[in-house]
Specification:
alpha+beta; L-amino peptidase D-ALA esterase/amidase; 7 helices; 14 strands; 26% helix
Length: 361
């Protein structure tokens, strides 16, 4: 049985309602696929790849407006110069480990060439965080076929979280981390839209960890649940993908991507020196054919209507990180190292104690 998500524990983040699955797949047409590699021979594998596929797989021919933000650049996300230049996402998004971000990039190009006869610019998005504490990262476990399988498995509906796909070997706030997702519904004068987020969480110190403002990490400290290392590194990384079905242009997507910093900060990250904190947002509310030969008719929400999107992004990113932590299970990997899961009974105890204190005050 999978571990419960944050809301299953009675903890609700923010004011906006989630979508049906509380996942990035609540954005119409967005699919997610994972390929998870866990084995000990011939070398220890605790790794994988996660694919975010917009437009039900038609992103190759029907691009989407996109923008990005780098909070701290000690990381990699390929394809960003093209997004900066054209404001368009032209491929699926792969998220994997540091050593194989290039392989995932190449695999998407190969898949696009084989299945779609190629695609514009051939500069896809591939992102990474470092899993070398639990995974023998220099064994280069991931293959093109693994990426192809993640692409083929991409589906809508509920999304597997925690120790899956690219998040398999990740560590977050000195607990087991990984993949997490969440969504929000927003109402505007132009209609209702969905905002979804997916994170690969591999960042943060224990003593900074907060849940809905409660300093949980100070109470579930190393005396209660051991940390993976004698002294935490001032680094780690997080990749955030934000999706919406609203008719936003590239500059507005960039504005959404910046707001991921707020959700990240609420959980307790300050983007330390060695951290790679890179965020990508795309919007599917306009059709942008890759082979367009005439002027396009586009729609755009007024900038003044974006406040609810900014709030929704902050909430969805915050909850995505917490869902990753709730879903992830204790893992032992490379060199016998063990990373413990966030103890959910203790999380509930701490949250209940602080709520009781707030009521008394």
């Amino acid at each position: 049985m999978p571990r419960p998500r944050l809301r299953d524990l009675g903890v609700t983040i923010g004011a906006y309602p989630p979508g049906e699955h509380n996942a990035i797949t609540d954005v119409p047409g967005v699919r997610v696929g994972h390929k998870t590699l866990i084995y000990d021979e011939p070398r220890v594998a605790r790794t994988g790849v996660t694919i975010v596929m917009p437009r039900e797989g038609a992103i190759w021919q029907d691009n989407a407006f996109a923008g990005y933000h780098s909070l701290n650049g000690c990381g990699e996300m390929t394809g960003l110069p093209l997004i900066e230049e054209f404001g368009l996402l032209t491929s699926p998004i792969a998220i994997t480990n540091t050593n194989q971000v290039g392989l995932a990039h190449e695999a998407i190009v190969r898949y696009g060439a084989g299945k779609h006869g190629g695609f514009a610019w051939k500069l896809p998005v591939s992102a990474e965080t470092y899993d070398g504490w639990l995974n023998d990262i220099d064994a280069f476990h991931l293959t093109h076929q693994h990426v192809f399988e993640a692409i083929e498995s991409a589906a809508g509906g509920p999304v597997a979280e925690g120790n899956v796909g690219g998040g398999t070997g990740m560590i977050c706030h000195d607990f087991k981390g990984g993949v997490g997702t969440s969504s929000r519904l927003v109402e505007t004068p132009s209609g209702r839209y969905t905002v979804g987020a997916l994170v690969q969480a591999n960042h943060g110190d224990r003593d900074l960890f907060r849940v809905d403002g409660v300093p949980v990490g100070r109470e579930i400290d190393a005396r209660h649940t051991p940390t993976p290392w004698p002294e935490p590194p001032k680094g780690g990384s997080i990749i955030v993908v934000i999706a919406t079905d609203a008719p936003l242009l590239a500059v507005q997507c960039k504005r959404l991507a910046r707001r991921a910093t707020i959700g990240l900060a609420r959980v307790g990250s300050v983007a330390h020196n060695g951290s790679g904190d890179i965020f990508l947002a795309f919007a599917t509310g306009n059709r942008v054919p890759a082979d367009a030969k005439a002027a396009l008719e586009l729609r755009m929400l007024p900038h003044r209507d974006l406040n609810c999107f900014f709030e929704a992004v902050a909430e969805a990113v915050e909850e995505s990180i917490l869902n990753a932590l709730c879903a992830a299970e204790t893992m032992t990997g490379y060199k016998g190292r063990t990373v413990h899961a966030l103890p959910l009974d203790e999380l509930q105890r701490v949250m209940a104690k602080h709520r009781a204190g707030s009521r008394q005050a």
